[in-house]
Every structure is written in C-alpha cells, then in structure tokens.
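Async update (no meeting this week)

Hi team, since we skipped the sync, here's where things stand on the single-chain job. The sequence we agreed to prioritize is pasted below, unchanged from the tracker. I ran it this morning and attached the output directly underneath so nobody has to dig for it. Comments welcome in thread, and please keep replies under the output.
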Amino acid sequence: MKTAVCRAAPLLSAALLAGTALAGEAVPPTAHPDTTGWEDLFKPDLSNAEFKAGVWSVTDGVFTATEDQALWTKKQYENFILDLEFKNAEGTNSGVIVHCSDLANWIPNSIEIQIADDTAEKWAKSPKTWQCGAIFGHVAPTKSAVKKPGEWNRYTITCVGPKVYVMLNGEQVCEMDMTKWTSAKQNPDGSEIPPWLSKPVASLPLKGHIGFQGKHAGAPIWLRNIKIQELPR
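Output:
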C-alpha cells in the first residue's frame, strides 16, 4: 500500500483539476463531451492492444469478442476522460476496466465500471453494485440508465487522482473516492465486497492499463467510438 506521503501529490492534483476546464472540458464533465480531435484508444488493427489472439476483432469500427478474454491498452494511463459507446445483447455482463496494474490477475488489481443488461432477470436480481453504471462490487449507480439490448449506450468515465466519475447516457450515475475504500471486505457504507476483489481499492495504483471485458456469462458485447483525452498530472 502507498503511504500517505505518496498519495499527497495525486490528491492535490485531484483538488486542482476537479471543477476546472481542461482542454475545453469540465472535470468531471457535466454532459457527454464533444470528442472531435480526441485520440482513439485503440488503432483499427489493434496493434497498440494486448489480447488473446483471435478473440477480439474490429469490423466497421465496432469491437467485439468471441471469448471471456479482456482487451487491454499497452499504454498505462493516469488522469483521463474515456468516452465510448456500448451495445448489450440479452443477458450481457461486461465492463470497462481502469487503473489495472496486473493484466494476468486483473480482477483484484483494477477498478471495473460495470456493463450489464439490467433487464435480464439474472442481473436485475443481483446486488445493485453489480448493475450497469456501478463501480463493480463497490458503488451502486444512483439510477438505472442503461438502454434495452440492441440499443447503443454512451459512457463517459473520468479518472482524476483517486476520483472516478461515471456518466451513462447523459446521467451522472456513480462516483468514487478511492481513498475511502481502505478495506477489502467492507465498503464504507458497511456492505460486503465480493471476496474476489481481495485488495483494498485505496491500495491500488492510480496509473494503469485500460481494458474491456469480453464475452462474459455467454453473452456478447459490442463497443465503438472509444476515445480518450488525457489530463494534466
């Protein structure tokens, strides 16, 4: 775990960045941003990505996977705004992964922003922290804002210092201050954390790979227009 001294700089950066305008965007954004001129997170040929051969493909700008294997950036990112669209099938359960420090064992070593078909009975009856817009296992969304399967949704995910903000289809549905998650067993509100999330969020690095979960739970996921705007440190 990093010491309080090590965390002072990211915390100061977060305080300076929050609520300010950077590169024409508010942090966190108050609406989905105009991503004209933003960098594509992945090249069309996926040459800047890490993934199991043959699993992920891109057709007409749409990414999809044939197995439950993640797609990762080779580069590590710290402060950024990530904007993308996703489309669920019936029963989809996937996710956007940030701050990943271990690609081989990513689940306890990252933060996952949940993608799910909340209309599916299995996920509708799951804990709220497992539903679409949640920071998986840790923070439930303030409302269900995901569209029905077959329709495109939009995420804007902002990571600034220890803060993570989630906007889904124009609604700010979730936010987290990582420094408050000092336990691997209980969230600050007293709710239980799934046991496979075995590291306190407060101990995770604030810089890491960005990834996308593949065809998890047998249902596909589709992604497009994956753009990123890096922010000053």
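Quick observations from my side:
Residues 4-230 form a domain with the Jelly Rolls fold (CATH 2.60.120.560).
The first strand starts at residue 21 and ends at 22.
Reply here if anything looks off.
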